[in-house]
Amino acid sequence: MTGGGGSPTLNLELFWFGDDDGTNESDNTFLGAKNSNQTLPADVNYRFRVSVSNTGTKSASGLQLQLEYNYDGGGWNPVNASSNVVRMSASTKLTEGNSCSERLAGAQTFDATNLGQEDNDGLTAANNLANGEEEEADYCFQIRNADVVAGKNIVLRVTNAGTPLDNYNQTPTVTIAAGAITIPLDIQTLASSVIDLSVTPGAVSALLDILSLVSSVIDLTVTAPLPTTTVPLDILTLASSPIDFSVVPGNASVLIDILSLIGTHVDLSVVPGATSAVLDILSIIANTVDLSVVPGAVSVPLDIASLTSALLDLTVTPGAVQIVLDIITLASTPIDLSVNIGSGAQIVSLDILTLASSLVDLNISPGAVQAILDILSLAANTIDLSVDLGSGPKTVPLDILTLANSVVDLTVSPGAVAINLDIQSLTTSIIDSEVASGTLILLDSLLLSSSLFDITILPGEVVVSLNNLILSSSPLDISAITASAQIVSLNVLDLNSSISHLKAAGYIKNHNKEDHIV
Q: What's phi and psi for 473, nearest 5 deg?
């Protein structure tokens, strides 16, 4: 480019990385400050705008700016439509071969006819850049995830159609982040095998489609402080295999669809961040489902059709949490649900159709909590519900249609609480309720046969309302120890060979007997 009358001096003066957004080349969002290096994930469109000046004494005729990269010190390579590591990427915001507006504001006079928009081959159209002028070029590119390793550096530059410029006043550098990773695993059969999948920061999609696992381990850890993470697990059969799934900070969606688990452990741990964990498990035999959720807006629905000799252990610590358990059949299975609330509403909904020789243990500590148990059939089972209230209203409705040889043990300590028990049929069963202070208990029982109602009320303003339609060979025992007003309302329509035993030291209201009360 030298000749009579002087020569051009070409300099890379300024650069700015940006998102591939906006409406055209003039309004996309810049990342960080001008001339600042960036950490970017792979497989995402980004823009690279550069300013080249001519401070020489002659025009640079036919100047074409070629984008080039140097990956991890391995040498310079042109960026084009088929290059490795860094590749040009089509953008709806750029028009190939059109000129760029002035956005970097260099010290020289801006050449507005620069032909600098580029999203195809990485080489701008030829332009004459006069001495004392500067031009800008805007490239749309992607880092190729298949060709790079997270944490490595990529240096970018432009040349004049492959000839280096005279001066590079800036060194634009990109550090590769772990982003936009897809890990599909399609495994037909694993015997005595281990799947250990660890995914680090970035938007991650992990797909596991596993048909059969025998004596195998699946260990999946996802760390996602960057965009959204989706981890669906579709597993048809697991025999003697543990699934250990841990999700740490980030917006994560965890989908586990497991059709059959035999002698297997499912361990799901979710720590702070907005997380959705969905477990759809159709059959679990002699298995453990261990779900632990700590602070953050978390939705954890569990849809389990059959649990046999299995443990469902759910622990939720402070934060706004919604937990939904829809369990159709439980045989010889304990459900242990512990909710510890620091702040925010918690909803614990248990919809259980059949419980056989099973334990439901629900423990709720201070905070505003709504616990709903809708249980259709209980045979030789125990429901143990303990509510400890610091402040705020708590509602614990129990809708139980059939109890056979079962125990319902309800303990409520100080605080404003409403407890509703709507029980249609009790056979050889026990309902044991102990209440302290500021509590409303409503018992609507349609049929009691050889069953026990045992209610003990400790000091406080308490209302106990019993509407019993039929009591057959059943004792009804209410003991009230009061320091303030207590209201005990009994409306009993039919008592056959039954005992209604009421002891109260406070105010008794509306004692209506239709049969005999001893």
A: 55, 35
